[in-house]
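User: What would this chain look like folded?
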Amino acid sequence: MRPYANSLRALAFALLTLLAACKDDSGPEPIKYGRDACEMCGMIISDPRYVTEVRGGPENRVKKFDDMGDAVTWLEKKGWGLAATKEFWAMNSEDGKTWLDARQSFFVHGDTPMNYGFAAVPDHREGSVTFDEMRAVVLARGSTSMCPPDQRTGGAKP
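Assistant: Here's the prediction, encoded as structure tokens.
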């Protein structure tokens, strides 16, 4: 059985290497609360009820946000729009643990970290709005006073 041991090790190594190379670039990534920063405003992400992630752009990378409004505003400012956004995730504000497809979610009004006032919920309910309705309100309103200037653009507000 000894001759097969080296072959089994080599096969195991090859399989692990292959699996690592085939990383699935889809789905939301874990948030490191208290450490990860919002892509738009640079503030530390601390409240799981309002976290948003988008995957897309030329590098198919994940961008993390502390408020849905920051995500919508950043996408518009960067010119990604929805077409270049492969995935758009919002945390279920009711449990702060379940990711929802933001484009299929509904949004209720409430206090949010950057004061855009939209929290994702999984189903339609009294007073909720669709993703498209929420997005239109956010873009018409512009950046909130809670969102400091974007340091990545030399301090100019979007």
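Confidence is low (pLDDT under 50) at residues 14-23, 150-158. If you want, I can go into more detail on any region.
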